[in-house]
Design brief:
It is a single chain. About 20% of the residues lie in helices and about 30% in strands. With about 160 residues, it is an alpha/beta fold. The radius of gyration is 15 Å and the shape is globular.
């Protein structure tokens, strides 16, 4: 399965039945940091809203594309909230991956992680994005990663999602 997570004002229609779209609209609670999705109820959030099963959705996706506005070199608040609520895609146990200590993956390795960022961006923010994309991909077990910088959402038309 392919997953697109985005914070765009408009909706994105999936290209096929194998693609799922998750719109970061902020209509859900922020992570409470209880870690029950790690320990008590693996991969299920205690919060009863549209992100309750987000760990399973992200964890079972082979390819993930994140489209987000640049907020000071990081994800928009709505996208960051989804990423925070997805901590249950891993376990509290540790392993070595890429010669470094990481949490054990609950769903195994994935294929690709792509981050498309729009909006104003300084050179320092772009460098932060490149590193963060690489590190997020490694932490979450993606074999490949890609960072794409665009000025505005209108530029998405020519980019393969």
């Amino acid at each position: 399965m392919k997953l697109i997570i985005h914070d765009l004002a408009r909706d994105i229609e999936p290209a096929d039945t194998e693609t799922r779209v998750l719109k970061a609209d902020g209509k859900y609670a922020p992570c409470q940091g209880c870690f029950h999705c790690w320990t008590k109820n693996p991969a299920t959030c205690d919060l009863k809203d549209s992100l309750q099963e987000v760990c399973r959705v992200i964890g079972t996706a082979d390819d993930v594309t994140v489209i987000t506005e640049n907020w000071y070199g990081g994800y928009s608040p709505a996208v960051k909230n989804i990423m925070d609520r997805a901590i249950g895609t891993s376990t509290p146990f540790s392993t070595y991956r890429g010669g470094q200590m990481h949490h054990t993956l609950r769903y195994g390795m994935h294929e690709s992680y792509k981050v498309i960022v729009y909006g104003d961006m300084t050179e320092a923010e772009e460098n932060t994005w490149k590193l963060m994309t690489e590190r997020n991909a490694c932490n979450e077990g993606y074999r490949t990663h890609e960072f794409v910088r665009i000025s505005s959402p209108e530029e998405l038309e020519g980019i393969a999602l």
